[in-house]
């Protein structure tokens, strides 16, 4: 039986901030296109919980080896069995909720979740570490549009922008952990690029995603869109500044979430 402290530890092990962010973005986009937002939100949340928990379950030994104080398994607040069970239960819920959206949307969402699991299980340690982020984020908008009647894929511009956001977020997320990851044998694309090129790459990709959405608005960029692009640029620049001067801070990843929020806001408001 998991008590109140165990529940809080499970929330932390689920990587709550990115899980909530991705779920909120998917729900907002679903609402904007007229898809069943509550069901898309529930399915995506289940998938994100499974991804977060599987990450901490798979990385338990590595996290203990480098003394990660932000990981509940590494600190002893949770055991591996509890997190593994939670991940598998979340996957089962994700399957049921995904297919409640329809066959096409269900398959599409399960592909995005399987792609993210492939990162946790294998690809994070290879030069292809970026690929699951590109695939999962890029296909996520189509989960909503395939739940429409009739089903259809998301616009190409939206798909490409989402993929760019995903890869940019990946690069920003890894920055504080480059040394710890390398010490435990995790050498993905950011580790091969180095801190400077990873930082610049994250900024460039995040800005490219926002610019693509703003400039691709039907009828041309609006004043609100330009303001959003300026805000995204400020967030990206601040992330680069912090990454260069305080490498251990998680601010660059939070700034990446902020840029993604700005981009999704533009998508929602422009339909």
TrEMBL record:
InterPro entries for the chain: UbiA_prenyltransferase (IPR000537), UbiA_sf (IPR044878)
Domain of life: Bacteria
Keyword Electron transport set for record: no
A GO CC term assigned to this protein in UniProt: membrane
Alphabetized GO MF terms: transferase activity, transferring alkyl or aryl (other than methyl) groups
Predominant subcellular localization, coarse grouping: membrane
Membrane topology (UniProt): Multi-pass membrane protein
Pfam families noted in UniProt: UbiA
Residues spanning the signal sequence: 1-16
Keywords for the protein's UniProt record, in alphabetical order: Membrane, Signal, Transmembrane, Transmembrane helix
Family annotation (Gene3D superfamilies): UbiA prenyltransferase
Cell location: Membrane
Residue stretches spanning the membrane: 26-46, 86-110, 130-148, 199-217, 223-244, 251-270
Official protein name in the record: Ubiquinone biosynthesis protein UbiA
Natural source organism: Cellulomonas uda
């Amino acid at each position: 039986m998991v008590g109140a402290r165990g529940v809080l530890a499970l929330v932390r092990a689920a990587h709550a901030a990115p899980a909530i962010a991705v779920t909120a973005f998917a729900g907002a986009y679903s609402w904007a296109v007229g898809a069943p937002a509550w069901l898309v939100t529930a399915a995506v949340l289940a998938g994100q919980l499974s991804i977060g928990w599987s990450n901490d379950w798979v990385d338990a030994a590595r996290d203990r080896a480098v003394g990660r104080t932000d990981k509940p398994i590494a600190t002893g607040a949770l055991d591996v069995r509890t997190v593994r069970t939670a991940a598998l239960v979340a996957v089962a819920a994700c399957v049921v909720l995904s297919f409640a959206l329809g066959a096409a949307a269900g398959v599409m969402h399960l592909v995005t979740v399987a792609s993210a699991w492939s990162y946790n299980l294998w690809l994070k340690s290879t030069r292809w570490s970026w690929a699951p982020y590109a695939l999962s984020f890029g296909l996520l908008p189509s989960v909503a549009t395939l739940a429409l009647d009739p089903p259809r894929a998301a616009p190409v511009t939206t798909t490409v922008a989402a993929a760019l956001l995903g890869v940019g977020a990946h690069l920003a997320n890894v920055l504080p952990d480059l040394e710890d990851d390398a010490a435990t044998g995790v050498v993905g694309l950011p580790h091969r690029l180095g801190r400077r090129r990873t930082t610049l790459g994250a900024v460039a990709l995040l800005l490219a995603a926002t610019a693509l959405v703003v400039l691709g608005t039907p009828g041309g960029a609006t004043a609100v869109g330009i303001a959003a692009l300026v805000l995204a640029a400020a967030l990206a620049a601040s992330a680069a500044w912090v990454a260069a001067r305080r490498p251990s801070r998680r601010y660059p990843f939070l700034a990446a979430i902020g840029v993604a929020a700005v981009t999704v806001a533009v998508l929602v408001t422009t339909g």
